[in-house]
Amino acid sequence: MSAMLPSGASLYDRVQRVIPPIEWPTFLDDIDAILELKQQRNAVVLAHNYQTPEIFHCVADIVGDSLALARKAMAVEADVIVLAGVHFMAETAKLLNPEKTVLIPDLKAGCSLADSITAADVRLLRQRYPGVPIITYVNTSVEVKAESDICCTSGNAKVVVESLGVSQVIMLPDEYLAQNIAAQTDVEIIAWKGHCEVHERFTPADIRQLREDHPGVTVLAHPECPPEVVAEADFSGSTAAMSDYVGSQKPPRVVLMTECSMSDNVAVEHPDVEFIRPCNLCPHTKRITLANIRSALEQNRHEVRIEPEIVGRARLAVERMLAL
């Protein structure tokens, strides 16, 4: 291995608070191989906030929420992008980097929200609500994006809704995100019935129990949670907003009502904050591992391809969002 490359062993200081020493040696071979393969192939790894710490802090080059990954993907100069996330994120990276090779380490890394709606559903909504703009959450397939007017993320949804200058919009597919944004704006929002299988399971009773068990805890909730959960929380925002909140407010004790690995990844940066960790696991993001990131780089799998006839329309919906 080149002397210029960091070694897996030297990276342990970053994650020692969240990865037990007994587990660390099991990651070293894959980490070292990935670091070398990235250099050999001029590749970068983009990792969502829900990836495990050994991916997020040790092999990823670009990290963040869906919006951050979408923006940063546009500036990538590498030949190969490995998306450590779920399939719709890899599709978005390919839309914004059509000349690059984009790999998803596991084709089954899907999303309950993306699975909740089809392009045919969107076309039927246009017939039912003629002239009403359709805002599609990035947690959707490229085919659904191609049928939409503009995309949004949980971090910019309110801005997108109000940017259109209309009194009524359709927001797809997350019902709870739509309801939570509707509570913040005068724009009428027509929602779909999709839900995130991670966030829909949190309840107000969970928060009340947390406050009883951990006096003084600050509760941060993702806007994909049900509105009654958001109402019980101290703050609601995207994964990036939650991370920023911890960094700026420094709550002594905090709980993040979102996917499990988010707390571990934020905790690495804030050793002075106590993280309470009741969380829900996303089975899709956890399909991404060091081993299949390594295999993706070694075997060029699985390359993301998008049907040419929908590329332009889908990219336009994403670019309209990024232009705001």
Account of the protein in words:
This protein is an alpha/beta fold and 324 residues long. The protein folds into 3 domains: 9-110 and 285-299, Rossmann fold, CATH 3.40.50; 112-195, Rossmann fold (3-Layer(aba) Sandwich); 199-276, NadA-like (Rossmann fold). It contains 16 helices and 12 strands. The strands form 3 sheets. A 4-stranded parallel β-sheet has the order 2-1-3-4, with helices on both faces. α2 runs parallel beside α15. The longest helix is centred in the first third of the chain and has 17 residues, at 25-41. It is globular and about 60 Å long.
CATH topology term of the largest domain: Rossmann fold
Query: What is the number of independent domains?
Result: 3
Helix content: 40-55%
Number of strands: 12
By CATH, the architecture of the largest domain is named: 3-Layer(aba) Sandwich
* CATH homologous superfamily identity of the largest domain: NadA-like
Widest sheet: strand order?
2-1-3-4
How large a portion of the residues is in β-strands, by DSSP E?
5-15%
What structural class should be given to the helix and strand makeup? alpha/beta
Head-to-tail CA distance between termini = 43 Å
